[in-house]
Design brief:
alpha+beta, Helix Hairpins, endopeptidase fold (from Nostoc punctiforme), 2 domains, four-stranded antiparallel beta sheet, two-stranded antiparallel sheet, 8 strands, rod-shaped
Length: 445
C-alpha cells in the first residue's frame, strides 16, 4: 500500500482500487542490484591489452614465416651439401679403384722388368764364357774343337757353319732380350708414373670427401639450430595466442557487463517512469477521496508488536531456499517472475517461480494482515522511519544507489536479516550489510 502517512486505510484501499482501474497491469517490481559497470578506462585498458597481444602475435607470425623460409633455404643447402658429399664419395671410390689398378700394373711391370733383366744377365754370362774359352785357345775354341773332330772336308765345313750359327744365334738372342728388357723397363716406368698420378688423385678425392663431409655437418647443424629457433617462435606465438584469447575474453566480458548495465539502466528507467505514473495516479485518487474527515491512523511509535513481528519473521523464514525470480511473489506465496529486458532475463527469471526482494516482504507481512506494494521504493515509505541503531526484529531495511532504493530485506534480530538477494540466488539469511544501506529502517507494525 502507499506510504503516505496522512492517508487512512480506506483511502489506501480506494487508491489501490483506482490504480487497478486505471489499467496498471504490470506489477511494479523491485529492481535487483545493478550489475557491474566497468569504467571507460577499464574498457580502454582492456582493449589496448588485447591490441598489444594481437600485435605481438602478428609480429611473431611474421618472424615465424621468415624463420620457416630460412629453414627451407637451409634444407636446400643441406641437400646440396649432401649431394656434394655423395659425389665426393663416388669420386673417392673411383680414385681408389684407379690407384689400386695402377698399383697392380706397376707391380706387374716391375716383376716383368726384373725378369727380363735376369734373362739378359744369364745370356751375357753364357756369351762371356764362350768368348773366354775361345781366347784361352788362342783362337775360337769352339771352332778348333769342332775342326779336330771332323772326318771329311764336308764335315769340317758343316761344323764351321754350325759354330757360326751358334755364336750368331747367341748374340741375336741376347740383343732380343736387351730390347725386351728396355721395353719392360719403360713399361715399369710408365706404370710407376701412372701410380703416382692415381695416388695423387686418391689423396685429392679423400680431401674433397673430408671437405664435403665437414660442409654437410655444418649445414645440418645450421638446420638444427633453425629448427630449434622455429620451434621456439612457434611456442612463443602459441603462448601469445592464448594470452590474446584471454585478453579478448576479458574485453568481451567487460563489454558484456557494460551492455548488461546499460540494459539495467534502461529497465530501471522504464520502471521508474511506470512507478511515477502509478504514484501520480494513486496521489490523484487519494486527493479526490480524502475529504479531510480527521487524522489518519498512524502506526505506533514504539517497538513493533512482538507477536505480529515474529509471525512476519516466521512466514519469511518458511521460504528459505526458494529461488529468486524478479517480479515474483505475492501474499499467497512464490509466483512466476516477469521479464526485465536485462539481467533477470539472462537468468531466466521469467521462467522461474519464486520471490524477488519486495515480493518476499509482501508474503511475510501478509501474516500480520499488512498489504505492501510490490516495489521496494514504496515499501520504504509504508511505515514509520526509525534510525538504524533503533531497528528491531520485523523492521524492513533498504539499500540505495544514487539516492534510489533498489533492495529490501527483513531484519530478524542479532545482526541478521532474511532476503531474496538477486537473480541466480535463493532466499537466505545473511548478516546485515551496511555498505549502501539507507540510514533508517521502516517499521509497519
Amino acid at each position: 500500500m502507499s506510504a503516505r502517512r496522512g492517508l487512512s486505510l480506506a483511502v489506501v484501499a480506494t487508491t489501490l482500487a483506482l490504480v487497478s482501474v486505471l489499467g496498471a497491469t504490470t506489477v511494479a517490481a523491485a529492481v535487483p542490484p545493478p550489475p557491474p559497470n566497468p569504467s571507460d578506462a577499464d574498457l580502454s585498458k582492456s582493449r589496448a591489452a588485447a591490441d598489444e597481444k594481437a600485435g605481438q602475435v602478428g609480429k611473431l607470425t611474421n618472424q615465424l614465416a621468415e624463420a620457416e623460409s630460412k629453414l627451407m633455404t637451409l634444407q636446400a643447402e643441406v641437400e646440396a651439401k649432401m649431394e656434394d658429399a655423395n659425389k665426393a664419395l663416388v669420386d673417392l671410390r673411383t680414385a681408389q679403384g684407379v690407384a689400386d689398378r695402377a698399383r697392380a700394373d706397376a707391380d706387374a711391370a716391375r716383376h716383368e722388368s726384373d725378369g727380363a733383366g735376369k734373362s739378359v744377365d744369364d745370356a751375357r754370362g753364357r756369351l762371356d764364357e764362350f768368348a773366354a774359352g775361345s781366347f784361352k785357345q788362342g783362337t775360337t775354341v769352339g771352332s778348333v774343337s769342332a775342326y779336330l773332330g771332323a772326318k771329311s772336308p764336308e764335315d769340317l765345313l758343316a761344323r764351321a757353319q754350325l759354330l757360326n750359327a751358334v755364336s750368331g744365334s747367341e748374340l741375336d738372342a741376347m740383343e732380343s732380350m736387351e730390347r725386351a728388357r728396355t721395353q719392360k723397363a719403360n713399361a715399369d716406368s710408365r706404370a710407376r708414373a701412372a701410380l703416382d698420378v692415381a695416388t695423387k688423385r686418391q689423396a685429392e678425392a679423400e680431401e674433397a670427401k673430408r671437405t664435403a663431409d665437414a660442409a654437410t655437418t655444418t649445414a645440418q647443424q645450421a638446420q638444427r639450430d633453425q629448427v630449434a629457433q622455429s620451434e621456439q617462435l612457434e611456442a612463443s606465438r602459441a603462448d601469445y595466442e592464448r594470452q590474446l584469447e584471454q585478453a579478448q575474453a576479458a574485453v568481451g566480458g567487460l563489454e558484456n557487463q557494460r551492455e548488461r548495465y546499460q540494459n539495467w539502466l534502461a529497465a530501471k528507467q522504464r520502471e521508474d517512469e511506470e512507478n511515477a505514473r502509478r504514484a501520480a495516479a494513486a496521489q490523484a485518487a487519494a486527493n479526490n477521496n480524502n475529504t479531510g474527515g480527521g487524522p489518519v491512523a498512524r502506526p505506533p511509535a514504539g517497538r513493533p508488536a512482538a507477536g505480529r513481528a515474529q509471525a512476519v519473521i516466521n512466514r519469511a523464514l518458511s521460504q528459505l531456499g526458494v529461488q529468486y525470480a524478479w517480479g515474483g511473489g505475492n501474499g499467497s506465496g512464490p509466483t512466476r517472475g516477469i521479464r526485465d529486458g536485462g539481467v533477470a532475463d539472462s537468468f531466466g527469471d521469467y521462467q522461474k517461480v519464486g520471490f524477488d526482494c519486495s515480493g518476499l516482504m509482501i508474503y511475510a507481512f501478509a501474516a500480520a494482515g499488512v498489504d505492501l506494494p510490490h516495489y521496494s521504493g514504496y515499501q520504504a515509505t509504508s511505515g514509520r522511519r526509525v534510525p538504524l541503531e533503533q531497528m528491531a526484529p520485523g523492521d524492513m531495511l533498504f539499500w540505495s544507489t544514487g539516492g534510489k532504493i533498489h533492495h529490501v530485506a527483513l531484519y530478524i534480530g542479532n545482526g541478521q536479516m532474511i532476503e531474496a538477494p538477486y537473480s541466480g540466488s535463493r532466499v537466505r539469511i545473511a548478516p546485515v550489510r551496511y555498505g549502501g544501506i539507507v540510514a533508517s529502517a521502516t517499521r509497519v507494525l
